[in-house]
Structure formats: structure tokens, C-alpha cells
Amino acid sequence: MPDTPLPAAAIDLLDLLETPALLLRNGRIIHANGPAIGLFGGHAQGQDVRLALRHPDVVSLITSGKNGSVRVTGLSTSGSLWEVKCNALSDGQQFLTLTDLSVQASVARAHADFVANASHELRTPLAAILGYVETLKDAKAGDDPTTRNRFLGIIGKEAQRMQGLVEDLMSLSRIEALKHQQPTEIVDLIAVARLCMGEVTEQDRVTLSTDVETAPILGDQGQLAQVLRNLVENAFKYGSADGQIRISLEQGQTGWISVSVADEGEGIAPEHMPRLTERFYRADAARSRQAGGTGLGLSIVKHIVERHRGRFDIVSRVGHGTTATCIFPPA
Predict the structure, then answer these.
(1) Quick one: 278 exposed, middle or buried, by C-beta within 10 A (0-12, 13-18, 19+)?
(2) Which CATH code is given to the segment(s) 8-100?
(3) I need a labelling partner for 68 at 20 to 30 A (CA). Which of 1, 153, 157, 288 fits?
């Protein structure tokens, strides 16, 4: 017996869904909406559903004839996560919907990793502080001025490290809370750059060059100052001990304004480049911790630049230094 044509209203309802949906009769796809065709291809229409989906858990759900759902991986790309729901209708028909949970799963993993990394980063200096405090309670160590001063110095350094980490975590949290609110204040990037240069101890090592008199953008002055401050601090930490740090501002033909911070350091190996803006990622963990880095500086920079609808890029060659560039749309 030939398949009874579907009512136009039913087809319209399926096609209104933004998620992939299939209507089956006796295990065969009698209609696939646009997102489903995008997922499985146009040839899925009229095909045996077992050939289209090819996942044993989904096939078991469909052939059971019962209502239910199952979560499966790899339906679209390797590692993707999907929830497949099946509802039995009349006349041997079944309604199948597929929901992509990959982004939710990725966000959940990122959140769990972030909490674990933050906990680890906080525990490390805290353990050192507690250990040296406990040692100072010992009469012999506490009564020796040289030992006591050395231990107190270590405690102070680790406490400052914890303070820096807490401040960066709070800063990152504030930035993420505002990421969908585009700033509306007009800020001159040249003035921000000069302000940051005035905060530097070794001012003779920092130069500023620009091809414009002013560089106005819509921005949050405090956050933009934080961007330049983080980039300049990184240049001091990882550049050569007496090398120059160059801040450059340019305006392109499109009107977009770029600000770059370049150092004369050792550079960064290519394998580290894709992960530099990840939270807590360090190309040289030992050197970063020794320099007082929290592993959050470039992540903060990236989030601030994205909030300003800009772009952030890092170029580096081993032995030739590193240049970090932020590009912003004009006001």
C-alpha cells in the first residue's frame, strides 16, 4: 500500500522547528525538515532510518516502538553529543527529534576544568603559607632571625600570589558578566596608553609610536587600561631583561584602530600559540609562576577585547620576540 501523503499543515509544523526532526512510518523517513536534511543530507528523505542514523542505541529506541529518549555521540562530528527523542504516533508513525547538546556539554566541561584549575592554583600557595607558618611556630625556627625573615618573605610572596589570583578571578568574572553589554563611552586609546606608560617603573624601556593624533573608540576606560597594563606587564616578564617594549597605535583605511605591544624576548614556540588565551595555560609554567603570573592575563585581555567587538592576535617567533595586537572598531 502506498504511503498516505502528509497533510500540508503537518509538514509546515515540522519545517518550523529549528532542530532536526524526522517523521517515520514503518522505519522509513517520510519527511525530514530543513535542519535534518542539513544534518543527514537530502538523500535521507525516503530512506530507511537505520541507514540514515546508523547508531545502535537510536535504532534500538526506534524499533522498540515505545516513547523514549537516548543520548548518543558522534551523529554529526566526532565527539558531538545528541539527545534523540522518539514518540509513537498513530498508523505506525513515529516522530523523531534530535537536540545538539555539544555546546552545553562543552560549557559544562570548561566550567568544571576552570573550577578545578582555580582550586589547584589557590591550594598551591596556601599550602606553602600554612607549611611555613607551622614551621615558624617551632621555637627553634621562630627564634632564629635569619630563618624567620626568610620564611616570612616566602609567606609574603605566596600571599601576594594568592591575592593576584583572586583579583584576576574577580576581574574575569566581572568581564564575563558584562560581555553582552557593549561600552558606550568614547575613550582615546592614546591617552590610555600614555596613562599605562606613566605607571611603569622602567619608563625608559617603553616607547609609544602612533600615526594619529587621537584614537577614539567606544570603550570602557578601566578595562582598556587593564588590557594595555596586562600586555605591558607580560612584555616585561617575558621580554629580554634590558630590551625595549614598543607600544604602537595605527588607524587603518577601514577606520579600525590597532594597538600593539611588542617585546624583544625569546619568543613563543609554535605549539603553544593556539592555547595562549586559555585560562591558566602557561607556555613556561615555572617561569610564569616565578614572575608572579596567574595564567589569566591573556584570557582577561581576550574577553575585554571581545566585549569591545574587537579582535585579539598574538604573533611570535622563537628568538625574535612577541607582538600582541588588539584591533577595535572606531567610535
Answers:
(1) middle
(2) 3.30.450.20
(3) 1
Handedness of CA 63, 65, 70, 76 (dihedral sign): positive
Mapped onto helix, strand or coil, the DSSP state of residue 195 is helix
d(CA 226, CA 104): 30
Do 249 and 190 touch, CB atoms closer than 8 A?
yes
Roughly how many angstroms between the first and final C-alpha of the chain, as a whole number?
A: 67
Cα dist from 154 to 53, 239, 307, whole Å: 60, 25, 38
Query: H/E element holding 68?
Result: strand 68-73
123-156 pLDDT, tens digit per residue, is: 888 998 998 888 888 766 667 788 888 888 989 9
Q: How confident is the model at residue 1 (pLDDT cuts 50, 70, 90)?
A: very low
Sign of CA dihedral 223, 229, 231, 234: negative
SS3 127: helix
Residue 290 C-alpha cell reads as 616565578
Average pLDDT over residues 29-41: 87
All three cell numbers of 250, joined, read 595605527
**Residue 87 CB: number of other CB atoms within 10 A?**
13
Buried b / exposed e along 1-20 (16+ C-beta atoms within 10 A)? eeeeeeeeeeeeebeeeeeb
> Which has the higher per-residue pLDDT, 238 or 111?
238
Q: Which residue type is seen at 146?
A: T
Indicate the CATH number for domain 183-331: 3.30.565.10
Cα separation, 94 vs 27, in Å, equals 8
Mind listing the pLDDT tens digit for each residue in 261-285?
999 989 998 998 888 888 888 776 6
CATH 1.20.1290.10 fits 107-177, yes or no: no
The rounded distance, in Å, linking the Cα atoms of 291 and 234 is 9
